[in-house]
Amino acid sequence: MRWSAIIVISVMLIAGGLFLYKPFNYISGLIKSEEEEESLATDEAMRMYQLCEHESNNKERCYALLFSDATKREGALKAREMLHALQKNDPTALVCHGIAHAIGEAAIETNLQKKEDIFRSTDFTECESGFYHGALEALKFYDPAFKLDKEYVENLCSMYSACAHTFGHLVVVDNALRNGLIDARTSIQKCEELFDGMNLSSCFDGVFMEHIMKQTLADHKLAERSPWAMSTAEEGEALCKQFDGKPAEACWGVVGSIYSVANTHRIEIWAPLCEKLGTGDAFWNCYRHAAEIAALQNSLDQEKVNALCLYFSSDESLLERCVLHIVSALVGTSQAFISRAEHLCGILPESARSNCRETVYKK
Length: 363
What we know:
Elements: H1 2-16, H2 34-52, H3 59-74, H4 76-89, H5 97-110, H6 115-121, H7 126-142, H8 150-157, H9 164-179, H10 184-194, H11 197-213, H12 215-219, H13 230-240, H14 245-262, H15 267-275, H16 281-295, H17 302-310, H18 316-333, H19 338-345, H20 350-362
Protein backbone atom coordinates (compact mmCIF):
# COMPACT_ATOMS: atom_id res chain seq x y z
CA MET A 1 0.00 0.00 0.00
CA ARG A 2 2.79 2.37 0.96
CA TRP A 3 4.68 1.76 -2.30
CA SER A 4 1.48 2.19 -4.35
CA ALA A 5 1.00 5.63 -2.86
CA ILE A 6 4.58 6.59 -3.61
CA ILE A 7 4.24 5.46 -7.23
CA VAL A 8 1.00 7.43 -7.71
CA ILE A 9 2.58 10.60 -6.32
CA SER A 10 5.69 10.15 -8.47
CA VAL A 11 3.62 9.76 -11.63
CA MET A 12 1.70 12.94 -10.82
CA LEU A 13 4.94 14.85 -10.28
CA ILE A 14 6.47 13.69 -13.57
CA ALA A 15 3.39 13.98 -15.78
CA GLY A 16 2.06 17.36 -14.79
CA GLY A 17 4.62 19.11 -12.65
CA LEU A 18 1.62 20.20 -10.62
CA PHE A 19 3.40 20.00 -7.28
CA LEU A 20 6.47 22.00 -8.22
CA TYR A 21 4.80 24.99 -6.59
CA LYS A 22 2.58 24.94 -3.52
CA PRO A 23 1.40 27.80 -1.36
CA PHE A 24 2.57 25.83 1.73
CA ASN A 25 5.98 24.22 1.92
CA TYR A 26 5.47 21.20 4.20
CA ILE A 27 9.19 20.94 4.97
CA SER A 28 10.21 24.53 5.72
CA GLY A 29 6.88 26.31 6.25
CA LEU A 30 5.04 29.02 4.36
CA ILE A 31 7.97 31.21 3.37
CA LYS A 32 10.54 30.12 0.82
CA SER A 33 13.92 31.80 0.42
CA GLU A 34 14.74 33.72 -2.77
CA GLU A 35 17.07 30.90 -3.77
CA GLU A 36 14.29 28.32 -3.38
CA GLU A 37 11.84 30.44 -5.37
CA GLU A 38 14.39 30.95 -8.15
CA SER A 39 15.16 27.24 -8.23
CA LEU A 40 11.47 26.35 -8.47
CA ALA A 41 10.94 28.86 -11.28
CA THR A 42 13.95 27.45 -13.12
CA ASP A 43 12.70 23.86 -12.73
CA GLU A 44 9.26 24.76 -14.05
CA ALA A 45 10.76 26.75 -16.93
CA MET A 46 12.91 23.76 -17.89
CA ARG A 47 9.84 21.53 -17.87
CA MET A 48 8.08 23.96 -20.22
CA TYR A 49 11.12 24.11 -22.48
CA GLN A 50 11.26 20.33 -22.75
CA LEU A 51 7.55 20.14 -23.59
CA CYS A 52 7.78 22.79 -26.33
CA GLU A 53 11.31 22.47 -27.75
CA HIS A 54 10.18 20.41 -30.75
CA GLU A 55 7.27 22.74 -31.59
CA SER A 56 9.39 24.62 -34.12
CA ASN A 57 6.41 26.05 -36.03
CA ASN A 58 4.30 26.99 -33.03
CA LYS A 59 6.56 27.19 -30.00
CA GLU A 60 5.17 30.49 -28.68
CA ARG A 61 1.64 29.05 -28.77
CA CYS A 62 2.86 25.97 -26.89
CA TYR A 63 4.47 28.16 -24.24
CA ALA A 64 1.37 30.37 -24.03
CA LEU A 65 -0.83 27.42 -23.10
CA LEU A 66 1.59 26.26 -20.40
CA PHE A 67 1.97 29.75 -18.95
CA SER A 68 -1.80 30.15 -18.86
CA ASP A 69 -2.01 27.02 -16.70
CA ALA A 70 0.88 28.19 -14.52
CA THR A 71 -0.79 31.56 -13.93
CA LYS A 72 -4.03 29.91 -12.85
CA ARG A 73 -2.08 27.83 -10.32
CA GLU A 74 0.50 30.30 -9.10
CA GLY A 75 -0.51 33.82 -10.11
CA ALA A 76 0.86 36.30 -12.64
CA LEU A 77 4.02 37.35 -10.82
CA LYS A 78 5.16 33.75 -10.30
CA ALA A 79 4.48 33.10 -13.98
CA ARG A 80 6.59 36.13 -14.81
CA GLU A 81 9.48 34.67 -12.79
CA MET A 82 9.11 31.43 -14.76
CA LEU A 83 9.18 33.42 -18.00
CA HIS A 84 12.42 35.15 -17.01
CA ALA A 85 13.93 31.76 -16.15
CA LEU A 86 12.78 30.34 -19.49
CA GLN A 87 14.30 33.26 -21.40
CA LYS A 88 17.72 32.46 -19.93
CA ASN A 89 17.50 28.96 -21.42
CA ASP A 90 15.59 29.69 -24.64
CA PRO A 91 16.32 33.02 -26.37
CA THR A 92 13.34 32.55 -28.68
CA ALA A 93 11.15 33.23 -25.63
CA LEU A 94 12.49 36.80 -25.51
CA VAL A 95 9.88 37.57 -28.18
CA CYS A 96 7.15 37.00 -25.66
CA HIS A 97 4.05 39.06 -26.45
CA GLY A 98 1.90 35.96 -26.94
CA ILE A 99 3.17 34.36 -23.72
CA ALA A 100 2.54 37.49 -21.65
CA HIS A 101 -0.86 37.82 -23.31
CA ALA A 102 -1.80 34.35 -22.05
CA ILE A 103 -0.59 35.23 -18.54
CA GLY A 104 -2.71 38.39 -18.49
CA GLU A 105 -5.81 36.61 -19.73
CA ALA A 106 -5.43 33.86 -17.14
CA ALA A 107 -4.88 36.46 -14.37
CA ILE A 108 -8.25 38.07 -15.11
CA GLU A 109 -10.03 34.75 -15.57
CA THR A 110 -8.98 33.57 -12.11
CA ASN A 111 -9.06 36.93 -10.27
CA LEU A 112 -11.80 38.99 -11.91
CA GLN A 113 -12.75 40.56 -8.57
CA LYS A 114 -9.25 42.07 -8.40
CA LYS A 115 -9.23 43.46 -11.95
CA GLU A 116 -8.32 47.02 -10.91
CA ASP A 117 -5.39 45.77 -8.83
CA ILE A 118 -4.21 43.72 -11.81
CA PHE A 119 -4.13 46.79 -14.05
CA ARG A 120 -2.86 49.31 -11.50
CA SER A 121 -0.39 47.27 -9.46
CA THR A 122 1.05 44.48 -11.58
CA ASP A 123 4.48 45.55 -12.86
CA PHE A 124 4.63 43.56 -16.07
CA THR A 125 5.46 46.00 -18.84
CA GLU A 126 7.85 43.90 -20.91
CA CYS A 127 6.81 41.76 -23.89
CA GLU A 128 5.36 44.85 -25.60
CA SER A 129 2.65 45.10 -22.94
CA GLY A 130 1.34 41.65 -23.82
CA PHE A 131 0.22 41.06 -20.21
CA TYR A 132 -2.10 44.05 -20.26
CA HIS A 133 -3.39 43.24 -23.74
CA GLY A 134 -4.37 39.77 -22.56
CA ALA A 135 -5.95 41.05 -19.35
CA LEU A 136 -8.01 43.62 -21.23
CA GLU A 137 -9.20 41.09 -23.81
CA ALA A 138 -10.21 38.75 -20.98
CA LEU A 139 -12.54 41.40 -19.56
CA LYS A 140 -14.59 41.16 -22.75
CA PHE A 141 -15.31 37.49 -22.05
CA TYR A 142 -15.33 37.27 -18.25
CA ASP A 143 -16.53 40.62 -16.91
CA PRO A 144 -20.34 41.16 -17.02
CA ALA A 145 -19.70 44.91 -16.61
CA PHE A 146 -17.68 45.13 -19.85
CA LYS A 147 -19.07 47.70 -22.29
CA LEU A 148 -17.77 49.18 -25.52
CA ASP A 149 -18.76 52.74 -24.69
CA LYS A 150 -16.65 55.84 -24.20
CA GLU A 151 -17.06 56.12 -20.41
CA TYR A 152 -16.09 52.48 -19.75
CA VAL A 153 -13.17 52.68 -22.17
CA GLU A 154 -11.84 55.93 -20.69
CA ASN A 155 -11.95 54.45 -17.19
CA LEU A 156 -9.97 51.37 -18.24
CA CYS A 157 -7.50 53.36 -20.28
CA SER A 158 -6.78 55.56 -17.26
CA MET A 159 -5.31 52.43 -15.65
CA TYR A 160 -3.45 51.18 -18.72
CA SER A 161 -2.20 53.84 -21.13
CA ALA A 162 -1.62 51.66 -24.22
CA CYS A 163 -5.07 50.12 -24.25
CA ALA A 164 -6.47 51.58 -27.49
CA HIS A 165 -4.70 48.98 -29.64
CA THR A 166 -6.36 46.17 -27.70
CA PHE A 167 -9.77 47.78 -28.06
CA GLY A 168 -9.15 47.72 -31.81
CA HIS A 169 -9.01 43.93 -31.59
CA LEU A 170 -12.07 43.86 -29.37
CA VAL A 171 -14.35 45.92 -31.60
CA VAL A 172 -13.74 43.38 -34.37
CA VAL A 173 -14.52 40.50 -32.00
CA ASP A 174 -17.57 42.28 -30.60
CA ASN A 175 -19.00 42.80 -34.09
CA ALA A 176 -18.44 39.12 -34.91
CA LEU A 177 -20.21 38.05 -31.72
CA ARG A 178 -23.14 40.44 -32.04
CA ASN A 179 -23.73 40.49 -35.77
CA GLY A 180 -21.81 37.53 -37.17
CA LEU A 181 -19.74 39.96 -39.25
CA ILE A 182 -15.98 40.48 -39.55
CA ASP A 183 -16.13 43.93 -41.10
CA ALA A 184 -13.24 46.38 -40.93
CA ARG A 185 -15.27 49.45 -41.91
CA THR A 186 -17.80 48.96 -39.09
CA SER A 187 -14.94 48.41 -36.64
CA ILE A 188 -13.17 51.58 -37.81
CA GLN A 189 -16.36 53.55 -37.15
CA LYS A 190 -16.51 52.12 -33.63
CA CYS A 191 -12.90 53.21 -32.99
CA GLU A 192 -13.90 56.73 -34.06
CA GLU A 193 -16.68 56.72 -31.45
CA LEU A 194 -14.26 55.69 -28.68
CA PHE A 195 -10.96 57.46 -29.35
CA ASP A 196 -9.23 60.43 -30.95
CA GLY A 197 -5.66 61.50 -31.72
CA MET A 198 -2.89 58.93 -31.29
CA ASN A 199 -5.24 56.57 -29.49
CA LEU A 200 -7.48 56.50 -32.56
CA SER A 201 -4.56 55.46 -34.77
CA SER A 202 -3.64 52.78 -32.24
CA CYS A 203 -7.22 51.48 -32.29
CA PHE A 204 -7.03 51.30 -36.09
CA ASP A 205 -3.84 49.23 -35.76
CA GLY A 206 -5.68 46.71 -33.58
CA VAL A 207 -8.64 46.55 -35.97
CA PHE A 208 -6.52 45.65 -38.97
CA MET A 209 -4.29 43.24 -37.08
CA GLU A 210 -7.35 41.35 -35.91
CA HIS A 211 -9.17 41.57 -39.23
CA ILE A 212 -6.16 40.23 -41.17
CA MET A 213 -4.56 37.80 -38.68
CA LYS A 214 -7.75 36.80 -36.77
CA GLN A 215 -5.82 35.80 -33.66
CA THR A 216 -8.40 36.70 -31.00
CA LEU A 217 -11.24 35.59 -33.28
CA ALA A 218 -9.53 32.19 -33.60
CA ASP A 219 -8.96 31.94 -29.84
CA HIS A 220 -12.74 32.12 -29.41
CA LYS A 221 -13.60 29.92 -32.41
CA LEU A 222 -15.05 32.78 -34.44
CA ALA A 223 -12.66 32.36 -37.38
CA GLU A 224 -9.60 30.45 -38.54
CA ARG A 225 -6.23 31.92 -37.57
CA SER A 226 -4.38 33.37 -40.59
CA PRO A 227 -0.83 32.15 -41.29
CA TRP A 228 2.12 34.53 -41.36
CA ALA A 229 2.49 33.98 -45.10
CA MET A 230 2.53 35.97 -48.34
CA SER A 231 -0.95 34.69 -49.12
CA THR A 232 -2.18 36.53 -45.99
CA ALA A 233 -0.20 39.62 -46.98
CA GLU A 234 -1.91 39.61 -50.38
CA GLU A 235 -5.33 39.48 -48.70
CA GLY A 236 -4.20 42.36 -46.50
CA GLU A 237 -3.08 44.37 -49.52
CA ALA A 238 -6.54 44.04 -51.06
CA LEU A 239 -8.11 45.23 -47.80
CA CYS A 240 -5.74 48.20 -47.40
CA LYS A 241 -6.58 49.47 -50.89
CA GLN A 242 -10.20 49.92 -49.77
CA PHE A 243 -9.17 52.64 -47.28
CA ASP A 244 -7.29 55.92 -47.27
CA GLY A 245 -5.84 58.25 -44.65
CA LYS A 246 -5.07 56.95 -41.15
CA PRO A 247 -6.98 53.65 -41.53
CA ALA A 248 -4.97 52.81 -44.67
CA GLU A 249 -1.69 53.65 -42.91
CA ALA A 250 -2.61 51.35 -40.03
CA CYS A 251 -3.54 48.56 -42.43
CA TRP A 252 -0.22 48.79 -44.30
CA GLY A 253 1.61 48.55 -40.95
CA VAL A 254 0.07 45.13 -40.35
CA VAL A 255 0.91 44.04 -43.88
CA GLY A 256 4.51 45.20 -43.32
CA SER A 257 4.81 42.90 -40.30
CA ILE A 258 3.61 39.98 -42.42
CA TYR A 259 6.06 40.85 -45.21
CA SER A 260 8.90 40.60 -42.68
CA VAL A 261 7.85 37.31 -41.07
CA ALA A 262 6.85 35.64 -44.36
CA ASN A 263 10.26 36.43 -45.84
CA THR A 264 12.32 35.41 -42.78
CA HIS A 265 13.02 39.07 -42.00
CA ARG A 266 15.27 39.57 -45.05
CA ILE A 267 15.28 43.30 -45.71
CA GLU A 268 16.26 42.79 -49.34
CA ILE A 269 12.89 41.10 -49.89
CA TRP A 270 10.43 42.96 -47.64
CA ALA A 271 11.74 46.52 -48.10
CA PRO A 272 10.99 46.60 -51.86
CA LEU A 273 7.45 45.40 -51.09
CA CYS A 274 6.94 48.43 -48.83
CA GLU A 275 8.64 50.70 -51.38
CA LYS A 276 5.79 50.06 -53.82
CA LEU A 277 3.67 52.32 -51.61
CA GLY A 278 5.78 55.37 -52.47
CA THR A 279 7.39 57.61 -49.86
CA GLY A 280 4.43 58.71 -47.72
CA ASP A 281 3.01 57.57 -44.40
CA ALA A 282 1.71 54.27 -45.78
CA PHE A 283 5.28 53.35 -46.80
CA TRP A 284 6.64 54.48 -43.42
CA ASN A 285 4.13 52.42 -41.45
CA CYS A 286 4.80 49.36 -43.61
CA TYR A 287 8.58 49.72 -43.25
CA ARG A 288 8.53 50.56 -39.52
CA HIS A 289 6.43 47.55 -38.54
CA ALA A 290 8.50 45.21 -40.70
CA ALA A 291 11.74 46.57 -39.22
CA GLU A 292 10.52 46.41 -35.62
CA ILE A 293 9.57 42.76 -35.84
CA ALA A 294 12.83 41.94 -37.64
CA ALA A 295 14.93 43.69 -34.97
CA LEU A 296 13.61 41.30 -32.31
CA GLN A 297 14.88 38.18 -34.05
CA ASN A 298 17.89 36.40 -32.60
CA SER A 299 18.82 35.34 -36.13
CA LEU A 300 19.84 38.95 -36.88
CA ASP A 301 23.24 40.07 -35.66
CA GLN A 302 23.95 43.68 -34.66
CA GLU A 303 25.14 44.64 -38.14
CA LYS A 304 21.85 43.49 -39.66
CA VAL A 305 19.82 45.24 -36.95
CA ASN A 306 21.72 48.47 -37.66
CA ALA A 307 21.07 48.03 -41.38
CA LEU A 308 17.33 48.25 -40.73
CA CYS A 309 17.74 51.97 -40.05
CA LEU A 310 20.86 52.67 -42.12
CA TYR A 311 18.41 52.20 -45.00
CA PHE A 312 17.61 55.89 -44.22
CA SER A 313 21.25 56.99 -43.95
CA SER A 314 20.76 59.77 -46.50
CA ASP A 315 17.98 61.37 -44.42
CA GLU A 316 19.08 62.20 -40.88
CA SER A 317 15.53 62.86 -39.68
CA LEU A 318 14.17 59.52 -40.91
CA LEU A 319 17.28 57.73 -39.61
CA GLU A 320 16.65 59.03 -36.08
CA ARG A 321 12.92 58.32 -36.35
CA CYS A 322 13.64 54.72 -37.35
CA VAL A 323 16.20 54.18 -34.58
CA LEU A 324 13.91 55.55 -31.85
CA HIS A 325 11.01 53.35 -32.95
CA ILE A 326 13.14 50.21 -33.02
CA VAL A 327 14.84 51.04 -29.71
CA SER A 328 11.40 51.40 -28.11
CA ALA A 329 10.34 48.03 -29.54
CA LEU A 330 13.51 46.34 -28.30
CA VAL A 331 13.50 47.57 -24.71
CA GLY A 332 9.70 47.30 -24.53
CA THR A 333 10.07 43.59 -25.27
CA SER A 334 12.87 42.55 -22.91
CA GLN A 335 15.72 44.01 -20.88
CA ALA A 336 17.86 41.41 -22.63
CA PHE A 337 17.71 43.62 -25.73
CA ILE A 338 19.25 46.68 -24.03
CA SER A 339 22.70 46.03 -25.48
CA ARG A 340 21.24 45.69 -28.96
CA ALA A 341 19.35 48.97 -28.48
CA GLU A 342 22.46 50.79 -27.17
CA HIS A 343 24.49 49.73 -30.18
CA LEU A 344 21.71 50.84 -32.50
CA CYS A 345 21.85 54.31 -30.92
CA GLY A 346 25.49 54.36 -31.94
CA ILE A 347 24.66 54.70 -35.66
CA LEU A 348 23.10 58.12 -35.04
CA PRO A 349 25.03 61.39 -35.30
CA GLU A 350 26.66 62.31 -31.99
CA SER A 351 24.10 65.07 -31.36
CA ALA A 352 21.20 62.55 -31.38
CA ARG A 353 22.76 59.73 -29.35
CA SER A 354 22.01 61.17 -25.91
CA ASN A 355 18.26 61.35 -26.62
CA CYS A 356 18.35 57.80 -27.99
CA ARG A 357 20.08 56.43 -24.89
CA GLU A 358 17.55 58.22 -22.69
CA THR A 359 14.87 56.30 -24.58
CA VAL A 360 16.70 53.03 -23.84
CA TYR A 361 16.76 53.58 -20.08
CA LYS A 362 13.45 55.42 -19.76
CA LYS A 363 11.69 52.19 -20.77
